[in-house]
Write a structure and sequence with these properties.
Blueprint (H helix, E strand, L loop, with lengths): L1 H34 L8 E6 L6 E11 L1 E6 L6 E4 L5 E8 L7 E8 L2 E4 L5 E4 L12 E7 L10 E5 L6 E4 L5 E5 L19 E8 L2 E8 L9 E2 L3 E3 L13 H5 L40 E2 L3 E2 L12 E2 L8 H25 L1
Parallel strand pairs: 9-15, 14-16
Antiparallel strand pairs: 1-2, 2-5, 3-4, 3-6, 6-7, 6-8, 7-19, 9-12, 10-11, 10-13, 13-14, 17-18
Helix pairs in contact: 1-3
Length: 347
């Protein structure tokens, strides 16, 4: 009797092991597929701007339209989420707010259903100390257009000047933008940045893979003449003018707050340098960070250079569990079949 049951029993065990093996293979295959991010979703040209004692802004681009967000926290466990300003776009702009002063924050970028980090480590930046704000907010403003001169919405505008941590803003439906220079911190975030009307302001604009740039004295940036995407300008010879027309939104917000809906008066005088568009960046096969922490606290952008891809996919967000459930059911079915077959032969 024992010899008659020996082969069927082994067969049942083999079916059981086969079921477990298939289940493990499918689960590992599922995991591999989840951890493989499409290159089109990978964040590129990641920049940190607008650092204050309670907020900072993260911006990046992707090759295809994706949903975006930033997961952040005071340690690498993260836990908090800030949503992208643009719901589904190639251009992404996320404000991380309600932070503590002089505190180090870690974050990863969410692109569709994947997380991306800084070449194996979480991005990090540090908020500034709580500083006394200037008594009067000082804003600069302007507009961005297409090459044909039509207003362009959703353009990111980066602003830098010597000794200051970078600022940024986005354009509205009319292509208008506004930034508060008096909010800029020094590069070490220890104090409010200083400047005067002759300070050279560098402006870099970007919408998806199209760039534009301009140089202008701070005193002539109210407003900055219209910047067309794909063109570079030098407004250094424009006479310094303090415009009496200040964006209405700047008057409505408390001091030190960024403005979003300016109503500047156009300025017709401008000098264009070279109509040749800025080249589209070429991605590399291995993503590498474009910038390094400055003083251990901030990733400082290089506005007038073409960006390089960066970011590395890490553990994905929980998504569709159907394949995993089906794998479990398959393994359980094969196990049950083996047991029933063994019992039937014994009987």
């Amino acid at each position: 009797m024992t010899q008659q049951l020996k082969f069927p029993t082994i067969l049942g065990i083999m079916i059981l092991l086969l079921g477990v093996g298939v289940g493990v293979f499918l689960v590992n295959t599922r995991k591999t597929l989840e951890l493989t991010a499409a290159p089109e979703e990978t964040p590129k040209d990641v920049r940190i701007t607008n650092i204050t004692e309670k907020s900072f802004t993260v911006s990046w681009i992707t090759e295809k339209k994706t949903s975006g967000f930033v997961s952040f926290g005071k340690n690498t466990s993260l836990g908090l989420v800030a949503n992208d300003t643009f719901s589904l776009s190639n251009t992404h702009y996320t404000k991380v707010q309600n932070l503590d002063p002089q505190t180090n924050y870690f974050f990863k970028i969410g692109s569709n259903s994947k997380f991306f980090d800084n070449d194996g480590e979480a991005y990090q930046t540090k908020t500034s100390a709580k500083l006394e704000q200037p008594k009067k907010s000082d804003v600069v403003f302007g507009s961005v257009t297409t090459k044909e001169g039509a207003p362009k919405e959703g353009v990111i505008v980066y602003l830098t000047f010597t000794g200051a941590s970078p600022l940024s803003a986005t354009t509205d439906k009319e292509g208008r933008w506004v930034a508060t220079l008096s909010e800029a911190r020094t590069t070490n975030l220890g104090s409010i940045a200083t400047y005067n009307s002759q300070t050279n302001l560098e402006i870099f604009v970007r919408k998806d893979a199209v760039f534009g740039s301009a140089k202008i004295p701070v005193g002539s940036a109210k407003p900055v003449p219209a910047i067309a995407l794909g063109k570079n300008y030098n407004f250094s010879d424009i006479q310094t003018v303090q415009s009496s027309v200040v964006p209405a939104s700047a008057l409505e917000l408390p001091k030190g707050q960024a403005q979003n809906t300016p109503t500047p008066t156009p300025q017709s005088s401008k000098s264009e340098v070279g109509p040749t568009p800025t080249p589209t960046p070429t991605p590399t096969s291995t993503p590498t960070p474009t910038t390094k922490p400055l003083g251990g606290t901030v990733l400082s952008p290089t506005p007038l250079t073409s960006p390089k891809p960066q970011g590395k996919p890490v553990t994905p967000i929980a998504g569709d569990l159907t394949p995993t459930i089906l794998t479990f059911i398959m393994g359980l079915t094969l196990l049950s079949a083996g047991v029933l077959l063994t019992k039937a032969i014994i009987s």
